[in-house]
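Whether sequence alone determines local backbone shape is best considered at the level of individual chains. When preparing material for the folding task, we compiled for one chain both its residues and its backbone structure tokens. No coordinates are needed to read the tokens, only the vocabulary itself. For completeness, the protein is quoted in full, as a sequence line and a line of structure tokens:
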Amino acid sequence: MVVRKVTTNHPAGDFAAWMGALQARVEAALARLLPGPDIVPQRLHQAMRYAVLGGGKRVRPLLAFAAGDLAGADSSRTEIVACALECIHTYSLVHDDLPCMDDDILRRGRSSCHVEYDEATALLVGDSLQSFAFQLLGENRLTDGAVAQLEMIRILAAACGSRGMAGGQAFDLASVGKALTVPELEHMHIRKTGALIRASVALGAYCGTALSKEERDHLDRYARAIGLAFQVVDDLLDCEASTATLGKTAGKDAAAKKPTYVSVLGVARARDLAEDLRADAHKALSGFGEKSYRLAALADFIVLRKF
């Protein structure tokens, strides 16, 4: 493995301000769009809001906004996409925490949805958030053409399904206690973690001016690299950070004997891989110039984050 160190000149304060403003915007939009807590069935809607609101890095919405900026998108369109993506991501977390999956009692620094409510409600929360995401994509005008909007729905559906996120989770459950190779880990995580990240970049770009196939290919190469990098860093943090810092149970992968990039490569080589993927992401953006500034900064954030 050749490690390519990346040096960037993005002003940290500017990125932090941009990220904070968009996180607040997505939070407000989700609070407005989700069914209110007093709407029947109240307990389900309260649990949906509990799971979605008040926490999370909102990385997938940030990626959608950054890709939308690159394509000159109207931010009101990107906002809807961002909320749909966060609903899908949260549904996956709620189901991931269930006893039949990873069985975790903490998420985003507080009780997991099935602990705060109950398992049946948590299952319905995940189901409802997934369908609500597609409702948002279907009832709002997000592009200038129906064909493009249908393609957006197809992209998100594929990212969620058996050849995307759900399939990755199936691989993950089947791999417990097994020794996987790096290509096998990549095969799993390009689906479990990477599929929705790739969809986030693609859907954000679709909200703007149509890009060429070559440009879309470059964006997808960027998204593929950061999708894998996100998982590598997650594996590193799971063994190095505290539960308080992560907002979820630290060390759980090792305790469950799940294969990770750390267990396969060791800490040092896993860090090198994350840096290599970060370099790949920057290289994929090189042809876009200043338009890709936010996407490049997000690649840095994903690899250099401490939580």
